[in-house]
UniProtKB/TrEMBL annotation:
Pfam families: MMR_HSR1 (PF01926). The keyword Ribonucleoprotein does not apply. It comes from the Bacteria. The chain crosses the membrane at residues 416-437, 457-477. Residues 53-164 form the G domain. InterPro entries: GTP-bd (IPR006073), GTPase_Era-like (IPR005662), P-loop_NTPase (IPR027417). One of its GO terms (cellular component) is cytosol. It comes from Modestobacter versicolor. This is GTP-binding protein HSR1.
Length: 527
């Protein structure tokens, strides 16, 4: 079943959406041309339904003579007497807001055909300057008006009908505009019947090969009037339909969409979710560059330091305070402030660059070069913010509960008890020394355990038990420090992964989604 052709309004709306999506992202000339077309369409639709037909051709093709024959008077000076101002002439049939339309076309020379043929009512016929003029302004004027008129009648002659310049520059690029194009082979009166048929057959073959199979060819002889009724009939048919402007804009929209489609991947819209391994790889690389290993090491050493303070000998704990806490030196905990982490080294920077490049290449896989360039620009903008965002993310990460484990509190209390036992032994021994100096040592009996004086046993036992308890607690303290370091690393990497998603993955995915939206809109505009 044949699909219903999109209306011009919907087609232009789709093209406008494609241009809006591409604006600021896709830096290609096709976007600028599509934007110009949209401006032209808005202006042309507001100027009524008159049909603007332009006669274009080379010097000597008889274009101006044909224009005068259709106009019924010598409006445009043909041949060598033709002015070289590069200004088009206009003949107008009827009243259809032609003046406003010609003002927009910037055609000052106007002739109103009287009496007007009712079949041509609403026709605005232009005689363009010669496209092969030696004057640049003439050629530029032709190029300008060729883009604006509704129907283009290209006038060829038997001598130059196959001229490569006109076919490559004008006719072949209008392959999508076959419905708004008419080719006239003028001056056929200079050929005999056989030569005329051969010339027409050769021209038909040229146009067919250029994608203009549906473009009609009208043989004429402007000097004798041969073929003019057929040409008038062709023009009258297009004027009566009142669709020439719409058809031209639709053809322009399809052409613009086809040009934009060159910047679409063949599988636009396919799902390209980043796999888990790639996401983790990017997060790990950014974590290394952000100084996460240094923070994790500081967390572990800080946990060991505090664990040693709680489980070590109470009388020697003060020595650990001679060294600053390695975690506090990093100034973490305030996301609004900068940390004191060292800058990433060459190895970490290289790893981060490689991971970012892999993410960018994965997002741009299969895309045309213009969109890969856009992804590269997006990634570069993300990289400019990345270092600061990573530092703030690391600074504001909750590294886990900073509580002293109950077992360490219990060991700490036991250490104080053993210290008090040792201290009691010391004081007892000092008391015994004092009694000995006073020769009262025989007065106070000295308790013994297995022959060992109890004060000595308290002193030595307290010290040895405290040392043994500290040695036994050390592996447990280290194990707990490693657990806290693992928790800190996991949380830090999660925060870094959030930054990676926000600053890298999401902008790249957004650019890819814009590509898919752009291509969907282009597809609708060109359908």
């Amino acid at each position: 079943m044949r699909r219903r052709e999109l209306s011009l309004t919907d087609r232009l709306a789709a093209l406008r959406e494609a241009v809006e999506v591409a604006d600021g992202r896709l830096e290609v000339p096709e976007v600028a041309r599509a934007r110009t077309l949209l401006a032209k369409a808005g202006a042309r639709e507001a100027l009524g339904d008159a049909t603007v037909v332009a006669l274009a051709g080379a010097t000597g093709s008889g274009k101006s003579t044909l224009f005068n024959a259709l106009s019924g008077s010598e409006v445009s000076t043909p041949g060598v007497r033709r002015p070289t101002t590069g200004v088009a002439h206009a003949s107008v049939w009827g009243e259809h807001g032609a003046d406003r339309l010609l003002d927009w076309l910037q055609v000052p020379r106007r002739h109103r055909v009287q009496p007007a043929d009712p079949a041509l009512d609403g026709l605005v016929l232009l005689d363009l300057p010669d496209h092969d003029s030696i004057r640049l302004e003439n050629r530029l004027e032709v190029d300008r008006l060729v883009e604006l008129v509704d129907v283009l009648v290209w006038v060829l002659d038997p001598q130059k009908y196959a001229d490569a310049a006109v076919h490559s520059r004008y006719l072949a690029p209008l392959a999508g505009h076959a419905g708004v194009l008419v080719v006239v082979l003028n001056q056929v009166d200079r050929l005999d019947d056989a030569a005329a048929r051969a010339c027409l057959a050769d021209l038909r073959g040229l146009l067919d090969r250029e994608g203009l199979a549906s473009t009609p060819i009208v043989p004429t002889a402007a000097r004798t009037g041969a073929g003019l009724p057929e040409l008038r009939t062709e023009l009258a048919r297009r004027v009566a339909a009142r669709r020439a402007a719409t058809d031209r804009l639709a053809a322009d929209a399809r052409s613009a969409a086809a040009a934009l489609a060159e910047h679409c991947a063949p599988d636009a819209g396919a799902d390209r979710s980043r796999d888990r391994a790639e996401r983790e790889g990017l997060a790990d690389a950014l974590a290394d560059a952000a100084g996460v290993p240094a923070v994790v090491s500081a967390v572990e050493r800080s946990a060991r330091r505090r664990g040693a303070q709680h489980t070590g000998w109470p009388l020697l704990r003060w020595t650990s305070k001679l060294r600053a806490d390695p975690l506090s030196r990093l100034h973490l905990g305030d996301e609004a402030a900068r940390t004191s982490l060292p800058a990433a080294g060459a190895v970490q920077t290289a790893g981060m660059d490689a991971a970012l490049r892999r993410a960018r290449d994965a997002a741009g896989q299969g895309l045309p070069q213009a969109w890969r360039d856009e992804l590269r620009r997006t990634a570069e903008l993300s990289e400019e913010r990345l270092a600061d965002r990573l530092d703030r993310a690391v600074a504001g990460t909750d590294l886990g509960p900073d509580r002293t484990p109950l077992w360490q509190r219990a060991v700490g209390g036991l250490q104080w008890l053993l210290a008090l036992v040792a201290l009691a032994g010391v004081l007892w021994l000092l008391a015994l020394v004092g009694l000995g100096l006073l020769q009262l040592d025989d007065v106070v009996p000295l308790p013994r355990v297995e022959g060992i004086p109890l004060p000595t046993l308290l002193l030595v036992g307290g010290l040895l038990a405290g040392l043994l308890l500290a040695l036994v607690s050390r592996p447990l303290v280290h194990a707990g420090a490693r657990r806290r370091a693992r928790t800190a690393r996991r949380r830090l990497v999660e925060r870094v992964a959030e930054v990676a998603d926000t600053e890298v993955a999401e902008p790249l995915a957004e650019a890819r989604a814009d590509h898919d939206r752009f291509c969907a809109a282009v597809g609708r505009a060109g359908s």
